[in-house]
Structure formats: structure tokens, C-alpha cells
Amino acid sequence: MVLLKDVSTKSPKEFDKEQAKEETGKIKKKLDDLQNLLFAEGRHAVLVVIQGMDGSGKDGAIKNVFGGLNPQGIQVKSFKAPTTEELNHDFLWRIHQHAPAKGMIQVFNRSHYEDVLVTRVHGWCDDETAQKRFKAINHFEKLLQEHNQTTLLKFYLHVSPEEQQERLKERTENPEKMWKYNAKDFDEAKLWDKYMQMYEDVFAHCNDPEWTIVPADQNWYKEYLIAKTLLTALEELKMSYPLLRKE
Amino acid sequence: MVLLKDVSTKSPKEFDKEQAKEETGKIKKKLDDLQNLLFAEGRHAVLVVIQGMDGSGKDGAIKNVFGGLNPQGIQVKSFKAPTTEELNHDFLWRIHQHAPAKGMIQVFNRSHYEDVLVTRVHGWCDDETAQKRFKAINHFEKLLQEHNQTTLLKFYLHVSPEEQQERLKERTENPEKMWKYNAKDFDEAKLWDKYMQMYEDVFAHCNDPEWTIVPADQNWYKEYLIAKTLLTALEELKMSYPLLRKE
């Protein structure tokens, strides 16, 4: 059982910022080639789930890790509070619509996991329902993997509460970040321990494939680790360009 | 009335390849900032329609002009032959679903214009229906512009038939491009004059906003001109970061 307070939010000692940034640059070039291959081959789909507290750097990770890729082969979906129409369906209905097609990389900025996170923290979802949702999530994720050749990568961006406070504060001070400010974020931040507990419960029940817990106090390390994990996963697909189809 | 055979498919004389590439690089940095502002401000939408014959470089334009942007703020939709469900609706039904939200850049790789291009060339759409479709397209484009603050940019990638043949041939020879090969493309290419005539008819009837006819035999010039046109359009929006919303 993962206890998040025992997991460092900082990069391991052996990592140097400049070196990591250089390495990330190299990885991104390889990702560019592999994405082209993924699209050309059209046999695999990739789904990247990004979760984390407000201010954990989800938007930045998406911009800086996935920003160099061909936009024709990648889609990003940010899941917000569900609409009335969405609430009139099962909680995976709106998610399923954005599952990646073969050849595509789909990034989820937040995801179906919010239905066992924010909802539990606020008591909108009781423990019994949560247990049922864990099972449904596992079945759903297996469906995507087994029935559409989907590689699923799940990242939890792990910041310290101190770093989070710094970043939320910056949104009240930096004119280019004020648009991100939401007074409610400070209220949510007060529920930190409860959120951690619910994340730990997610890791205990929905861990196939395993979550990557990304130390995220330093953006350069966060970006390096996500890029590296994606690279490894794409390389494992052993893809190749299709031969000429004579028709 | 535009006669496409009188429009050059090559860059104007004063353009130098290296200079254009350098300039495109600079423009892309500015586009990156402006996209961030577009997203942050959330008051305008941008729709980029890209049309052109097979091999005119639509995919490359999307990769190389829009590739550096934040994938969270851009979506690309490639319109293929309509499905049975799509055919059971009006021709703009499937298009409308992909109209950009405020804050977003949406790129159409082919578009509703195929319904007055490939369909007319093959006789699936008669002249009378085409005239009605032109009107419907104009009303639809006005709706997006007037009712959702959408900046609409329409690009026709203009290659010579000789350059097209070269590129289609390359798909049979270059292993990294074979996946793009479709024997039918050579048959379509034989209908060149008819396609040009139908494009000319589009420019005559649906030209508000005006189409940008992009000389596209040289990719570096094509990319420069699209990037530059997009930059000018975004600068004209006079956007600014929103102030802090105290709630």
C-alpha cells in the first residue's frame, strides 16, 4: 500500500536539472518519430491519464511533454465538472467517447478517476459506490487495452502541499497566470489529507497497469519522467512502417 | 474570378528558402505566445480550413505549422468519406460538431468543401444542389463568425499536377510513406481539370472570408505563408490576459 507522505515530491539526488532537460529534449525527438510510426502503422492506441492536485502542473506537463508532437495524431481532453446530460449517464459514458482510436495518442487532463476522488472527498460518493466504481474502472480499462490495443499510462503528479500553496499564490500575482485563479482552489487545498487518502485508495484498487507517481515539485524532473515513461512504452510496441498495399 | 492555372504554384521570386525557414521559426514562437493568450482570454475561437488535392501537403502543413503549439489548445479533425450515419444528416451536421470552442484553435484537414468538390467531380451532387450548398456554407460560416467570435481562415494548397505526380510516386517508393499510398489517388489525379474548375467555383461563391491560395510546390513557402497568415489574424484580435476575478 502506497503512503503518499512517504513518497518524495522531489527529483532523486542523482538528477541534475540541465542534464535532465537535455535528456528530455532528446527523448522528445524520438517521441516525434515514434508518433509518426504509431499513426502510420495504425495498430495501437495510446491513452495517457494525468491526475494531480490543483497546481501540480498538469497543464504544463501537457504543453511541455506533448507540445512537439504532430497535432493530427494527438488529442487532449480536459474533464471538468460533469454537465447535466453527462450526469444522466453512467460515469464512464463521457469518458468512453474520448478513448483513443488506433494510431492516436489521447491525453486525459483529469479523468474518470475524479469520480472516486473529488466526489469521495466531498461525500458525494460513499464507500460502497466507490468500491463498485473501482471495479467498473478496471473493467473499462481492460476493455480499452484488450479490445483496441490501447497502451494505458497513468501518471499522478505528486507535489508537496507547500509547493502547491506557492503555485496557487502565484496565480494571484502573475498577470499571465491570473486567468487560472479560482478562489475555490484554496478551499480544496484545505482538504489535502483527505485527497491523499483517496488517491492511496485508487492506487490500491486500480493499479493494473501500475500508476507512475511523478515527483512534481520540479517541473524539469516531472517532464523528464513522463517523457521517458512514454518513450519506453512506445518502444515496447515494436512498430514498423506498413509495406505497400497493392490494390 | 480566379483561374487556378494562372496562379503560380511556386514561391514569389523575392523569397529565399533559408530566410523563409528562419522567419517561420520566429513566427512559430509568436504563435505559441498568442495561442496561450487565446486560451487564457477565452473570448475568441479560431477555425483553420485546409483544402487541397492529394499530395498537396496538407498533413505536412499541419505537422510543421501547428506542431509546436500546446496540444491542449488545438484540435485537428480529418474529414474522410462520410459514414452511413453522417449521410443520414445534412452535410454540415458532422462538421458543426467540430466547430471550435472559444479559446481553441481547430484545424480541418479537408472540410465541408468536399461536399461541393469531390461530390461534383463525380456527379454525386448536381449544379442546382451545389448552388444550395454554397448558400448553406455561407450561412454556416457566418454563424460561427458572428455567434461564437470565430476567426475563420481558409487555405487552398495549390500544387502543380507535375509536383502532385512526383509526390504520389514517392509514396510507392519511400518505405516511410507507403502507408499513405492509395491506388485510387492516381485515378483521382486524372480528374485534375474538373477539380480545378470546382475549386474555382468555390472561390467564386464562398469567399467571405477570402480564401488564401497557397503556392505549395515548395513546402517551406507553403508553411511560411500559412504561419504568417495565422499570425496576422491572431494579432488582429488584440487580446490581453484577463485580470484577477475576485469571487
Automatic annotation (TrEMBL), chains A, B:
Transmembrane segments: none annotated. Signal peptide: none annotated. It comes from the Bacteria. The keyword Kinase applies. Keywords: Kinase, Transferase. GO terms for molecular function: polyphosphate kinase activity. Residues 1-21 are annotated as: Disordered. The keyword Cell cycle does not apply. GO terms for biological process: polyphosphate metabolic process. Residues 7-21 have a biased composition (Basic and acidic residues). Residues 15-238 form the Polyphosphate kinase-2-related domain. Belongs to the polyphosphate kinase 2 (PPK2) family. Class I subfamily. This is Polyphosphate kinase.
